[in-house]
Amino acid sequence: MNSKLSSAHASSRIERDCEELTAIVERFALTEGVHPTAWGPLSFFRADSTSAPVCALYEPGLGLALQGAKQILLGQETFVHEPARYLVTSVDVPVSAQVLRATPEEPCLCLTFRFDLQRIREFLPEIRPVRAAATPSRGIALSPLDGDLLDPLLRLARLLDKPQDLRMLGPLLERELIYRLLTGEQGARLAQIAIAGSQGHQVSRAIRWLREYFDQPLRIEDLAAQVNMSTSSLHHHFRAMTAMSPLQYQKQLRLQEARKLLLSECCDVATAAHRVGYESPSQFSREYSRQFGAPPLRDVNRLRMEGVESVA
């Protein structure tokens, strides 16, 4: 009986804290889109209606859905992000995301906390329960939300109206949040990319290179040598984490960047193709159409008609 009462009390507390955090997010995110906050790694998202799938690059971080729901597609895997579950992204992954549930009366509200991987590395020697998985796992995962993780997030959000308190207490709350993540269900997922020399860390180094030099020619042998892996090992573990090969990953980055260029800078298709690394504008247009469902100009015109200013 006592365990049932304790469980009911914990559930009631989580529900109450989620309601308070939802109210804070809604107060700061008065319009649709992503809203930065006074604490750099923390941002809020709001959508007042459902959306078509949008390509985006998810960076390492924690995501918490508070109201409504989003669907995230990584390769052929689908993740439905809704209240009572938190999402952990351990590496940069190109995804397709869309808002599934949202109305002006009950908008989709989400919170994102971006990870500092160096800070995570500093914690690892002190946290004995965490053991990195022998084989790298997917770069995205969902877990049930618990009160220990929710508590530092709520306390951090409460301080957004108190700059002095935020400056002094924010670093402590961030440490607590990282500790809760590393000792929680997704701790091993984070450890795998933070431990120097691990296969997950080597793959994360390869991903960083691809992000920085996505417009450069790619030789898998050179990339594998750079991160001290064999080509077959790089292929295997890269696909395990990102659901795609390094070449497919590079293509995703190129096409997403080209879409941003076409939308924000109004350059022509040939120029956009060249700037992201394509030698053939016709090949670029074919791959763009397969990725986004329409040729470049038609796709960008549709986005402008829908009032989309950014697809990041």
From TrEMBL:
Stored SUPFAM superfamilies: Homeodomain-like
Pfam families associated with the record: AraC_N, HTH_18
InterPro entries named in the record: Homeodomain-like_sf, HTH_AraC, HTH_AraC-typ_CS, Tscrpt_reg_HTH_AraC_N
Keyword Transport set for record: no
Keywords from the UniProt entry: DNA-binding, Transcription, Transcription regulation
Residue ranges of every copy of the HTH araC/xylS-type domain listed in the record: 204-302
Name of this protein: AraC family transcriptional regulator
Organism: Dyella koreensis
